[in-house]
Amino acid sequence: MSQPKTEARRCAVQAIYQWQVAGANLSEIEAQFLVSSGLKGSAKRYFGELLHGIPKELDALDKAMSGFVDRPIDEIDSVERAILRIGAYELLFKPEVPYRVVLNEGINLAKRFGADQSHKYVNGVLDKISREQREVERSVANKKQ
After folding, report:
1. Which of 10, 67, 76, 109 has its CB surrounded by the most CB atoms within 10 Å?
2. Count of domains forming the chain
3. Overall pTM > 0.85
């Protein structure tokens, strides 16, 4: 059984992808996923936070990514873009989630949903964002090693 936030992220990738591609209403997407996914409790709450928080903070997320991607944000594969936006959201707005967890989850999502080597791209971008957004956390973690 996977962790609630892992389940929430898994569903959020699919929901954010749907929102990006089809431009569907967030509440309709959320209702559809809550019926089909069986998310409950904290997983359901975190899914809702990601699904509504990412579009709300889209400018900040895309700005945080823009210096670390090799092409315009809109030209990044839709699955990778959804994963990167989830990771960027957590790095910027969820300081209680350790940066290493964010990177690991992003890599795992890319391996599951992305193209063959997309996990390397996702890792590289999220790592660079974490260096900028979580400098203090990274330096403390590095001193403990």
Report:
1. 109
2. 1
3. yes
